[in-house]
Amino acid sequence: MLLGGVVVVLAGGVAFWYAPGLFGPAPNAGDVSVSGNIEAHESVLSFNDVQAPIVALPFDEGAAVRAGSVLARVDDSLYRQQVAIDTANAQTAAAQVAVNQSNLAAAQSTLASDVFDQNQKAQDYQRAQALVGSRTISVQARDLARTAAQQAGEAVAHDRALVQVAQANIGLAKAAAAAARAKLGLDEITLGDTTLRAPFSGVVAVREAELGELAAPGVAIVTLDDLNHVWLRAYVNEPDLGKIRLGEAVDVSTDSYPGKIYAGRISFISPQAEFTPKTVETYAERITLVYRVRIDIDNPTHELLPGMPADAKIALLPAGQ
Q: N or C: which end of the chain has fewer CB within 10 A?
């Protein structure tokens, strides 16, 4: 009887042990809280290929701007003058193409006329050759006809050479015109670079220049932050790495707005481990490995700003799910 009782107890224990697998998934494995700082896409903007005094800076720091808004403008008088010169050069080059095309047409017309003359002179010589045999005309007349036919042939050869020269001149003129148009296009681009525009909608974080300063390529003018797309950089301990997933929803909170929850999701999990990012730490902490994660956050009201500390609560899934 005792043995039977033991068997019943063991069977009950086995049934209890496997109950989660029989009746549903294991309960949630809990959650982990991580901390970090808000980051945003930030662009330091400068002028390209122009050097001139700044004449317009319409926005101050903190101003919201739309994509394409003018952030700064430099004195463009020199670049406008260069465009005017290049426009005249392009027009001159185009006119030269037209002149060479007219020269080709004239050379082709002369060639056609001389070909007719050559054919006529060849026929005259053939008739003279026939008549000299019957002594209708003199040998001298026949020789003069032959010379005229030869001269007509040389004239045709000369005309063909002139046609080839005219065709070559057209090719050179077209190449010069193309180069002039390319130079004009390049200087028009440079003229456009005298205006600095916002590449995306954002907020002017830093205005690093003032009116009258000399702008040059690579010299920072404005720093623009994209507050519509912010994220939290945080770190997850190695034991928890297998319990989080890309795309997983995350609750984010900040001390600046107590009690307010921002919707986020995990958009990146680093494939490489890092040491715990601390400046003061014990040896045990220093050798702890963590993985960087990026949590994208909805920020339609622009309340979350770069550098702001924030906390995130990530629900941990059972390992392997």
A: N
